[in-house]
């Protein structure tokens, strides 16, 4: 068996050459105007390896709505706060169903299948509202420290638009409340949740924020242990199995890295011990994941055999 | 970020010391006499690393019924025969349901969710019956070559017992046939399937048979490319997401390696680029996976941070 | 084939003699204090036949919370307002599931299976909020006219308690809103719905209110056509198939009359062309229907062959 | 309230005049050649009232495949044999799902929802195989006596064709067997079931066979009590709630009589105390019930208010 070595600049050059030929299929998310109005042809990617080298392509320094990717940050905070008792209130199994399914939640009596389906992220939000003194500010402070940048904010318009259209999330949280699995006031939790999903970042900031998951829990910027190595492993495992809704298998199969997507077109992926990478391309495939970001990641891992598998 | 190195002998010594203190909870599979009569206290494990070193503990040279673990071997053969068209007839997504669920199969109109739930393995069996001249003999020959041992056989009594009790598999295959997704005679496919699940191996043979999946598709015994590196990656990804029925998330979360279990109490896991490991302990947890084998693997990967994540 | 004749006084005497020997199994509804505090041993029944004769037993003149029985009155009003277009927004099929199931509602994309499951009654409420000038007052006026009594009111405490505990209904209506099948403000519809379910009546008033459904749509008190004979037939058919949640088959099987129950322990049943009958006994069986009321009705229809079947 | 009287000859004249104007939508069942080759424009109807008068229209003396209608006859026999213990092995609730759904059967652990979905009829067949000395012959003898005609037979070609295509029924019975709810050999039960569904009758024979259900359990031809009045009521109740698959609500709503359909295009309906009526028109609506037969029945009951409701 042979250890793999990675020629990062060469790979980025190859991808840069390849990019114009990769189709940009799919549809930009249209359920709120702030997402619908994004330029569908935007593309950015940024990789940080374990030596601390940075590689980027395209609009890697442009802010976009990271949406559900922020659920991983919320999970990290909640896991630190609750330790292993967290798993009494939310599972770690793939859902096998669309991300906003009430069916499973009802069948399993208000215990969300995992922290990345909407119900699970609402549950995690409830936990943070219980634990944090100033939940929204504390979340921003945590995120800023992870990526070493002060310039991380919620987008109030996005949060507001989500709130106006999100009857399905209201259904989910009410159902969990009916089973006693939501402890705080529903409106407070929903407000936190919609702000969480409205965070904006660049690919560079995103890759930096997730570097601790590629580094056994240690933030490489300041060598602080964000979470234990065991917790980092477990968060990665959950991303691997649940990070792409009902396309988790397809993503694992094609890309072979733990990762998470958002309907803003962002994708984060980490290779433990090697690198973290963020991509952004707004058009989504039928499962709600960025079409082009996944294509590029598949090319990256297949051509270069850069996969955990 | 730091590269990990592994002290295999030290880990095995530590596990050996730890073993007497690990509880042996659960129940031996009892639906056929051949499994019910196995000594519940048997334990074996065998690891082969990329340098070709072997490490073992307990009854690692005793044959046991590998059961569903053989589905990975069948998938490997079928994937080679059908290439990517295989995925038109079987999916790669976790099931989110028990391994023998008809519900999902009906909901998805006869396309099994993945190749490791029973329906998926029956579908793979149908493909092999279509492709192989002498399906049962060819499967044995393939397995023997993988592990470099001639002494690999079906257990006719096990196959016969399975056949007598397996109304659920008959339901599954009839349902798929009703959707046109089974091409061969039902009895022929079932006969192949029941034989597939009756293969007997030792931990050593099992670890050797799966070494190609830890070695980017190459059989380290003879340096033959069993499947391409890309296919090996994909088979590992499917094991990661679907290898432990509705406990796949739990196994990933705890152990963090792609693997597969069988109701005979066997578990195989691979760390691509590093090692393959087989364990055997007959008592099963409530999800049908070996209780003790998973405990030991979790200890191995958590203590030593030997995980792909 | 022989026409049946009915000796009402004889039947009531027989039931009166039988009553002490009929067990009073089950549990009083306990999710709100107003229901939990009702005397569990209360029993009343009242029958009005097509000659306008009245027969009663027990606490037939005592008010109780008719709860879901009021859904039939709401349906009658909505059906009159919308005519057959009503059925584009709500179905007429039995649910095959508990009355508050989100599963089916999601599977069928926000179209409730029938008007008597909670989702369906919320939908009917939305229609009435659209059509009526003063929805709550108009509903009371309609009900008062049906039973010829001014003394019909909502119970504000009950409505308030329901509102405080009813996260499941909030989940249902939000889900329907997410599918675009709720037109009005959610809080307004919920307020109407909780008031609807808080109506209090006596058995006598209830039997009188439903007499038009036993009389081909004509209110026997004033000979007004409340709904057409065809609509009355259809409302009865829906009661027959959907009036007892997932015990509709059992109720039809045992009692053989169209009817509707409420968690307050009330049951209404009609025999078209013959009579309407209301019963009240607060203890509920495991399906949420009055245990004793159904026992007595079964005795009535089985012994005397008073069934539509 | 007013007693209804029926002018049968007048109604039949009106229907005869109306018939040419009633569309003949839908598709003839095509899964076996024997059904596919039937003339799609055939139409027959036959009514027998409680005075023993006969009224007919069209091809009322032509044999057709009664298919699932025969399930009512099988249920009648099984109910007589098992009495109320029958309901421990099969339910009486509407399915809320297509007639051949495995989902519900698995969810409810091998207990079919009711005797008229395929699983339920297979279960009833199993019971008859247990109870009858010569199941197929005894079933024919029972049916012949009901309609007073010797000329009632299975169609061997139909039974054979069903057997060749019916993987779904094989799935259902294997699933029930896996739950221990099938006692006899699967092939024997399936053979009985396929013969049961192959019975051929004319509308006249069919109406006569079901007259006992319109006559409180008494066969009007010979005044024999086929089943008790209570059992007749219960069978009618089950027909009302479960006789038209997932269109039971729609049929009750439109027609308002207990009835049963078959994919051969036959429909039987009974008005207890008044009449039994059989119709035949081969083209089926999307739910698998005869389009034209239901239209005509709806006209009959709506125009003349001939409904139990």
UniProtKB/TrEMBL annotation, chains A, B, C, D:
Gene: glsA
Keywords: Acetylation, Hydrolase
Protein family: Belongs to the glutaminase family.
Catalysed reactions listed for this entry: L-glutamine + H2O = L-glutamate + NH4(+)
Ranges that cross the membrane: none
Pfam annotation, one family: Glutaminase
SUPFAM superfamilies: beta-lactamase/transpeptidase-like
Highest taxon of source: Bacteria
Alphabetized GO MF terms: glutaminase activity
PANTHER family the UniProt entry points to: GLUTAMINASE (PTHR12544)
Subunit structure: Homotetramer.
InterPro entries, alphabetized: Beta-lactam/transpept-like, Glutaminase
Protein name, UniProt field: Glutaminase
Keyword Hydrolase on entry: yes
Enzyme category, top tier: hydrolase
Positions annotated to bind substrate: 68, 118, 162, 169, 193, 245, 263
UniProt-listed GO biological process terms: glutamate biosynthetic process; L-glutamine catabolic process
